[in-house]
Request: fold
Amino acid sequence: MASLNSRVENAKKHSISKDITLQGKYIHLKLLNAEQDTETLFHRSNGKAVEISGGFCNSVEDYDPEEEVWKYMFTSTTAQQTLEEYKAVQVESLLELSRCTAFVVFDSASNSQIGVLCYLNNFSEHLKVEIGSVWYSPIAQKTWANTEATYLLAKYAFEEMGYRRLEWKCDDLNERSKASATKLGFTFEGVQDSHYIYKNRSRDTAWFRILDSDWESVKTHLETRLQY
Reply:
């Protein structure tokens, strides 16, 4: 008779509080709020020059939003979009997505919105979730922002929700995202060929994961990188 894997008890649904704030040293995370966050996020990701005072972020001149922010995302934004179009495409679509919890990343020193990342494919019955739909304004790229935001969501998933598995997936052509996953402590699992079609092109998806058994070493690695 074929053997079975180990039995798992007490896999329960975990509800994320509507007023949750995950506080780090450099940034903090709050749930995406269409009324409070849309306008600032629009102006931070549509290609127009951005200035921000205080904190660790960098001011930037006009830039190509597709190349710097949206190239490997399922949707895009340009300066030609209206605020209402942006709200529908980039904000309301996330809020309506099943098994998704969207967070806004704030630079804590200026208390200003600098990006978005989400829990996706949240299957509490299987004790697993994905971090995805991640983007940052160019003012926050190559800073502490993504490292600490990922750390906060990973810590919450493993230590508060009691999950066993945290996933990271990206277009296999997205070298920057794959490098980030590795630096953040995720383990590469392989490539799923012909996984999606988006922006009229085929996507092969690279899969990465952290398991609960990895978490303590990954946690130490991230806290060292963040100079905690």
The longest strand covers residues 112-123.
